Amino acid sequence: MRWAAIVVLWLSGCFLGLEDQPPVGPPGPAALIESAQAYDPIRGRLVVQGGREPEANEVRSATWEHDGQRWVLTDPIGPGPRRLAAMVHFPELGAIVLYGGSDADNDQAECNETWTYDGAKWRRLDLDGPGCRRGHNLSYDPDGKRVLLFGGLDFCGDGRCQETWAFDGQAWTLLARPGE
Length: 180
Known about the structure:
Layout: H1 2-11, E1 36-40, E2 45-49, E3 52-53, E4 58-59, E5 63-66, E6 71-73, E7 86-90, E8 95-99, E9 114-117, E10 122-125, E11 137-141, E12 146-150, E13 153-154, E14 159-160, E15 164-167, E16 172-176
Antiparallel strand pairs: 1-2, 2-5, 3-4, 5-6, 7-8, 8-9, 9-10, 11-12, 12-15, 13-14, 15-16
């Protein structure tokens, strides 16, 4: 039950801690907002990347994992400082996929990068894709065996993104534009 509470708190975008239970294991990340999170069912870990630490008002680059007992700071070489990105586990790759986000507090600095994380290292994929965006959503489509992306904000174009994209592990494909 405690693990479920941690997942719910992280998925809400802010880890608030559990007041009634002492912390288990070493300290974890500082309070974060706008971080990307995904559960890795193969390794049984919640993976948290980036986010903004509100007390310091700094965008972070760290990747943290929680195994239900303790936090572990993982590979420091990855997407770099990032907030408002999205992540989801993609079983066909055996990895977590991260897309987009903003690499600074400057809303004009969106990232249009696709990264994968296999639990050992981050790898940037050199792909054309949905373009600059932050605050979008990623979901796994088990029937299509693909990752779906929808929405977000984009300051490289007209502001709001209403497109739907699919990632099959090799390439991004536009599925729908507004009005189509």
